[in-house]
Write a structure and sequence with these properties.
44% helix, Rossmann fold, alpha/beta, 2 domains, 314 residues, seven-stranded parallel beta sheet, single chain, UDP-galactose 4-epimerase, domain 1
Protein backbone atom coordinates (compact mmCIF):
# COMPACT_ATOMS: atom_id res chain seq x y z
CA UNK A 1 0.00 0.00 0.00
CA UNK A 2 1.18 3.54 -0.77
CA UNK A 3 1.03 5.59 2.44
CA UNK A 4 1.51 9.33 2.95
CA UNK A 5 2.53 10.69 6.36
CA UNK A 6 2.10 14.45 6.68
CA UNK A 7 4.48 15.84 9.26
CA UNK A 8 6.39 12.68 8.43
CA UNK A 9 9.79 14.05 9.43
CA UNK A 10 8.56 14.87 12.93
CA UNK A 11 8.87 13.00 16.18
CA UNK A 12 5.83 10.79 15.71
CA UNK A 13 5.84 10.57 11.92
CA UNK A 14 9.45 9.47 11.58
CA UNK A 15 8.87 6.67 14.09
CA UNK A 16 5.69 5.54 12.34
CA UNK A 17 7.80 4.89 9.23
CA UNK A 18 9.48 1.83 10.73
CA UNK A 19 6.48 -0.47 11.24
CA UNK A 20 4.90 0.66 7.97
CA UNK A 21 8.01 -0.19 5.94
CA UNK A 22 8.50 -3.46 7.81
CA UNK A 23 5.04 -4.62 6.88
CA UNK A 24 5.65 -3.84 3.21
CA UNK A 25 4.07 -0.44 2.69
CA UNK A 26 5.62 2.16 0.39
CA UNK A 27 5.95 5.33 2.47
CA UNK A 28 6.01 8.97 1.34
CA UNK A 29 6.72 11.75 3.83
CA UNK A 30 5.59 15.36 3.42
CA UNK A 31 7.23 17.89 5.71
CA UNK A 32 8.88 21.29 5.76
CA UNK A 33 11.94 19.77 7.43
CA UNK A 34 14.74 18.49 5.18
CA UNK A 35 15.45 15.31 7.17
CA UNK A 36 13.59 13.04 9.60
CA UNK A 37 13.71 13.63 13.34
CA UNK A 38 14.73 10.00 13.82
CA UNK A 39 16.32 7.93 11.07
CA UNK A 40 16.78 4.17 10.71
CA UNK A 41 17.59 1.59 8.05
CA UNK A 42 13.94 1.62 6.98
CA UNK A 43 14.39 5.12 5.52
CA UNK A 44 16.44 3.78 2.59
CA UNK A 45 13.33 3.36 0.47
CA UNK A 46 11.30 6.25 1.89
CA UNK A 47 10.77 9.42 -0.13
CA UNK A 48 10.72 12.74 1.73
CA UNK A 49 9.04 15.63 -0.04
CA UNK A 50 9.71 19.09 1.37
CA UNK A 51 6.46 20.96 1.16
CA UNK A 52 3.93 23.07 3.02
CA UNK A 53 0.66 21.48 4.14
CA UNK A 54 -1.08 24.77 3.45
CA UNK A 55 -0.01 24.59 -0.22
CA UNK A 56 -2.99 22.93 -1.84
CA UNK A 57 -1.17 22.20 -5.11
CA UNK A 58 1.81 20.52 -3.44
CA UNK A 59 -0.42 18.25 -1.39
CA UNK A 60 -2.66 17.35 -4.31
CA UNK A 61 0.32 16.62 -6.54
CA UNK A 62 1.90 14.40 -3.87
CA UNK A 63 -1.24 12.32 -3.46
CA UNK A 64 -1.85 12.07 -7.21
CA UNK A 65 1.74 11.39 -8.33
CA UNK A 66 2.40 8.67 -5.76
CA UNK A 67 -1.04 7.02 -6.02
CA UNK A 68 -1.55 7.40 -2.28
CA UNK A 69 -4.00 4.90 -0.79
CA UNK A 70 -3.81 5.86 2.89
CA UNK A 71 -2.89 9.03 4.79
CA UNK A 72 -1.69 9.54 8.34
CA UNK A 73 -2.25 13.25 8.87
CA UNK A 74 0.18 14.20 11.66
CA UNK A 75 1.46 17.56 10.41
CA UNK A 76 0.66 20.63 12.53
CA UNK A 77 2.07 23.67 14.29
CA UNK A 78 2.15 22.51 17.92
CA UNK A 79 0.81 24.22 21.02
CA UNK A 80 3.65 26.47 22.22
CA UNK A 81 4.58 27.48 18.68
CA UNK A 82 0.90 28.11 17.89
CA UNK A 83 0.64 30.59 20.76
CA UNK A 84 3.73 32.42 19.43
CA UNK A 85 2.72 32.27 15.75
CA UNK A 86 -1.10 32.12 15.63
CA UNK A 87 -1.43 33.03 11.95
CA UNK A 88 1.01 30.32 10.92
CA UNK A 89 -0.80 27.84 13.14
CA UNK A 90 -4.16 28.67 11.62
CA UNK A 91 -2.82 28.44 8.07
CA UNK A 92 -1.01 25.12 8.55
CA UNK A 93 -3.45 23.42 10.88
CA UNK A 94 -6.67 24.59 9.24
CA UNK A 95 -5.83 25.06 5.56
CA UNK A 96 -3.64 21.96 5.78
CA UNK A 97 -6.51 19.90 7.16
CA UNK A 98 -8.83 21.00 4.38
CA UNK A 99 -6.15 20.26 1.77
CA UNK A 100 -5.60 16.74 3.12
CA UNK A 101 -9.31 15.94 3.12
CA UNK A 102 -9.86 17.37 -0.36
CA UNK A 103 -6.91 15.47 -1.81
CA UNK A 104 -8.18 12.27 -0.19
CA UNK A 105 -11.64 12.87 -1.59
CA UNK A 106 -10.63 13.84 -5.13
CA UNK A 107 -8.01 11.08 -5.57
CA UNK A 108 -9.97 8.27 -3.91
CA UNK A 109 -7.70 7.71 -0.92
CA UNK A 110 -9.04 4.74 1.00
CA UNK A 111 -8.50 6.04 4.54
CA UNK A 112 -7.31 9.06 6.53
CA UNK A 113 -6.16 8.80 10.14
CA UNK A 114 -5.82 12.13 11.96
CA UNK A 115 -3.76 12.71 15.09
CA UNK A 116 -5.87 14.88 17.37
CA UNK A 117 -5.20 15.67 21.02
CA UNK A 118 -6.68 15.79 24.51
CA UNK A 119 -5.91 19.51 24.28
CA UNK A 120 -9.25 19.76 22.46
CA UNK A 121 -10.88 19.66 25.90
CA UNK A 122 -10.94 22.48 28.42
CA UNK A 123 -10.84 22.58 32.19
CA UNK A 124 -13.42 21.69 34.82
CA UNK A 125 -14.56 18.42 33.24
CA UNK A 126 -15.41 15.14 34.93
CA UNK A 127 -12.57 12.82 35.94
CA UNK A 128 -12.21 10.41 34.22
CA UNK A 129 -12.82 12.33 31.04
CA UNK A 130 -15.53 10.89 28.82
CA UNK A 131 -14.96 10.84 25.07
CA UNK A 132 -18.01 12.99 24.37
CA UNK A 133 -17.29 15.58 27.06
CA UNK A 134 -17.64 19.22 25.87
CA UNK A 135 -14.64 20.47 23.90
CA UNK A 136 -13.76 24.04 24.89
CA UNK A 137 -9.95 24.21 24.50
CA UNK A 138 -7.86 26.98 26.03
CA UNK A 139 -5.10 26.86 23.39
CA UNK A 140 -5.17 27.76 19.70
CA UNK A 141 -3.65 24.35 18.96
CA UNK A 142 -6.63 22.71 20.67
CA UNK A 143 -9.04 24.95 18.76
CA UNK A 144 -7.59 23.91 15.41
CA UNK A 145 -7.66 20.24 16.35
CA UNK A 146 -11.35 20.40 17.34
CA UNK A 147 -12.10 22.03 14.00
CA UNK A 148 -10.05 19.37 12.22
CA UNK A 149 -12.00 16.58 13.90
CA UNK A 150 -15.33 18.15 12.96
CA UNK A 151 -14.21 18.75 9.38
CA UNK A 152 -13.06 15.15 9.01
CA UNK A 153 -16.34 13.79 10.37
CA UNK A 154 -18.20 16.11 7.98
CA UNK A 155 -16.24 14.69 5.02
CA UNK A 156 -17.14 11.20 6.22
CA UNK A 157 -20.86 11.96 6.32
CA UNK A 158 -20.94 14.21 3.24
CA UNK A 159 -18.57 12.38 0.89
CA UNK A 160 -18.14 8.91 2.40
CA UNK A 161 -14.45 9.44 3.24
CA UNK A 162 -13.14 6.82 5.68
CA UNK A 163 -11.92 9.35 8.24
CA UNK A 164 -10.65 8.21 11.64
CA UNK A 165 -9.03 10.21 14.44
CA UNK A 166 -7.40 9.55 17.76
CA UNK A 167 -6.94 12.10 20.55
CA UNK A 168 -3.42 11.57 21.85
CA UNK A 169 -2.16 12.59 25.28
CA UNK A 170 1.33 14.13 25.52
CA UNK A 171 3.59 11.79 23.54
CA UNK A 172 6.86 11.05 25.36
CA UNK A 173 9.96 9.86 23.50
CA UNK A 174 13.75 9.96 23.45
CA UNK A 175 14.61 13.30 21.83
CA UNK A 176 10.89 13.91 21.60
CA UNK A 177 10.72 17.48 22.91
CA UNK A 178 9.27 19.84 20.31
CA UNK A 179 7.06 22.88 20.03
CA UNK A 180 4.27 21.65 22.27
CA UNK A 181 3.40 22.83 25.77
CA UNK A 182 3.87 19.22 26.85
CA UNK A 183 7.52 19.24 25.71
CA UNK A 184 8.67 18.99 29.33
CA UNK A 185 7.51 15.35 29.38
CA UNK A 186 10.36 14.40 27.01
CA UNK A 187 12.77 17.29 27.67
CA UNK A 188 13.15 16.30 31.33
CA UNK A 189 14.73 13.00 30.30
CA UNK A 190 16.99 14.51 27.65
CA UNK A 191 18.28 17.34 29.83
CA UNK A 192 18.88 15.05 32.80
CA UNK A 193 20.92 12.61 30.71
CA UNK A 194 22.87 15.28 28.81
CA UNK A 195 23.22 18.06 31.39
CA UNK A 196 22.46 16.33 34.69
CA UNK A 197 19.83 18.93 35.54
CA UNK A 198 16.37 20.11 34.50
CA UNK A 199 14.05 22.94 35.45
CA UNK A 200 10.35 22.19 35.01
CA UNK A 201 8.22 25.08 33.72
CA UNK A 202 5.15 23.59 35.42
CA UNK A 203 4.40 23.15 39.11
CA UNK A 204 5.51 19.97 40.94
CA UNK A 205 1.85 19.02 41.35
CA UNK A 206 0.93 19.61 37.68
CA UNK A 207 -0.28 16.40 36.09
CA UNK A 208 -0.34 15.65 32.38
CA UNK A 209 -1.77 12.66 30.53
CA UNK A 210 1.13 10.96 28.74
CA UNK A 211 1.69 8.15 26.29
CA UNK A 212 4.98 6.54 25.34
CA UNK A 213 5.90 6.90 21.67
CA UNK A 214 5.74 3.15 21.03
CA UNK A 215 2.15 3.06 22.28
CA UNK A 216 1.26 6.15 20.22
CA UNK A 217 2.59 4.59 17.02
CA UNK A 218 0.76 1.35 17.73
CA UNK A 219 -2.45 3.24 18.45
CA UNK A 220 -2.33 4.97 15.07
CA UNK A 221 -1.65 1.71 13.25
CA UNK A 222 -4.30 -0.24 15.14
CA UNK A 223 -6.94 2.39 14.42
CA UNK A 224 -5.94 2.44 10.74
CA UNK A 225 -6.21 -1.35 10.52
CA UNK A 226 -9.44 -1.72 12.50
CA UNK A 227 -12.27 -3.25 10.44
CA UNK A 228 -14.79 -0.61 9.44
CA UNK A 229 -17.68 -2.62 10.83
CA UNK A 230 -16.12 -2.61 14.31
CA UNK A 231 -16.06 1.17 14.62
CA UNK A 232 -18.84 2.87 16.54
CA UNK A 233 -17.44 6.39 16.14
CA UNK A 234 -14.98 8.41 14.04
CA UNK A 235 -12.91 9.99 16.85
CA UNK A 236 -11.46 8.03 19.78
CA UNK A 237 -9.65 8.82 23.00
CA UNK A 238 -6.72 6.70 24.11
CA UNK A 239 -5.03 6.82 27.49
CA UNK A 240 -1.63 6.01 28.92
CA UNK A 241 -0.32 7.34 32.24
CA UNK A 242 -0.88 10.59 34.15
CA UNK A 243 2.04 11.36 36.50
CA UNK A 244 2.65 14.71 38.16
CA UNK A 245 5.86 16.58 37.38
CA UNK A 246 7.31 15.54 40.75
CA UNK A 247 6.41 11.89 40.12
CA UNK A 248 8.11 12.11 36.72
CA UNK A 249 11.13 13.72 38.40
CA UNK A 250 11.23 11.01 41.06
CA UNK A 251 11.29 8.28 38.44
CA UNK A 252 14.14 10.00 36.61
CA UNK A 253 16.11 10.43 39.83
CA UNK A 254 15.73 6.75 40.71
CA UNK A 255 17.49 5.99 37.43
CA UNK A 256 19.87 8.98 37.62
CA UNK A 257 20.41 9.76 41.32
CA UNK A 258 22.93 12.52 40.66
CA UNK A 259 20.65 14.82 38.63
CA UNK A 260 19.36 18.13 39.98
CA UNK A 261 15.70 18.98 39.30
CA UNK A 262 14.07 22.34 40.06
CA UNK A 263 10.80 24.11 39.26
CA UNK A 264 10.06 27.55 37.82
CA UNK A 265 6.41 27.45 36.72
CA UNK A 266 5.46 29.52 33.69
CA UNK A 267 1.88 30.74 34.23
CA UNK A 268 0.75 30.48 30.60
CA UNK A 269 2.13 27.03 29.89
CA UNK A 270 1.13 25.71 33.30
CA UNK A 271 -2.45 26.89 32.85
CA UNK A 272 -2.67 25.14 29.48
CA UNK A 273 -1.33 21.85 30.83
CA UNK A 274 -3.56 22.03 33.92
CA UNK A 275 -6.60 22.57 31.71
CA UNK A 276 -6.10 19.10 30.26
CA UNK A 277 -7.82 16.05 31.75
CA UNK A 278 -5.75 13.71 33.90
CA UNK A 279 -7.62 10.43 33.59
CA UNK A 280 -9.13 9.55 30.23
CA UNK A 281 -11.89 7.06 29.52
CA UNK A 282 -10.72 5.10 26.48
CA UNK A 283 -13.27 2.29 26.80
CA UNK A 284 -14.60 2.84 23.26
CA UNK A 285 -11.15 2.24 21.77
CA UNK A 286 -10.66 -0.79 24.01
CA UNK A 287 -13.96 -2.25 22.89
CA UNK A 288 -13.87 -1.39 19.17
CA UNK A 289 -10.23 -2.08 18.27
CA UNK A 290 -8.69 -3.71 21.34
CA UNK A 291 -6.64 -0.70 22.39
CA UNK A 292 -4.48 -0.98 25.51
CA UNK A 293 -1.37 0.98 26.53
CA UNK A 294 1.60 -1.30 27.22
CA UNK A 295 4.08 1.13 28.82
CA UNK A 296 3.90 2.32 32.44
CA UNK A 297 6.00 5.15 33.91
CA UNK A 298 8.88 3.02 35.22
CA UNK A 299 9.26 0.99 32.04
CA UNK A 300 9.01 4.10 29.87
CA UNK A 301 11.61 6.00 31.91
CA UNK A 302 14.07 3.13 31.84
CA UNK A 303 13.74 2.74 28.08
CA UNK A 304 14.13 6.45 27.32
CA UNK A 305 17.16 6.88 29.57
CA UNK A 306 18.81 3.77 28.12
CA UNK A 307 18.31 5.02 24.56
CA UNK A 308 19.65 8.50 25.36
CA UNK A 309 22.68 7.12 27.21
CA UNK A 310 23.44 4.79 24.32
CA UNK A 311 23.28 7.71 21.85
CA UNK A 312 25.52 9.78 24.11
CA UNK A 313 28.12 7.01 24.30
CA UNK A 314 28.21 6.39 20.54
Amino acid sequence: MNVLITGGAGNLGSRLVVPLVRRGDRVILLDMRPKPHVESDEFRDVKLIQGDLADRDVLAATVRTHSIEGIFHLGAVLSSAAEDRPYDAWRVNMDGMLNVLDAARFYCVKRVVFSSTVATYGSGLADPLLVDAPQWPVSLYGVTKVAGERLGVYYHHRFGLDFRAVRLPAVVAPRGAGGGVSAFCSAAFEECVLKREYEFYVKPTTRAPMLYIADAVRGLLDLYDAPEQNLTRRVYNIAGINPSAEELAGTIQRNLPEVRITYSPDPVRTSIVESWPCRIDDSDARRDWNWKANWDLERMAGEIIEVLQSELAS
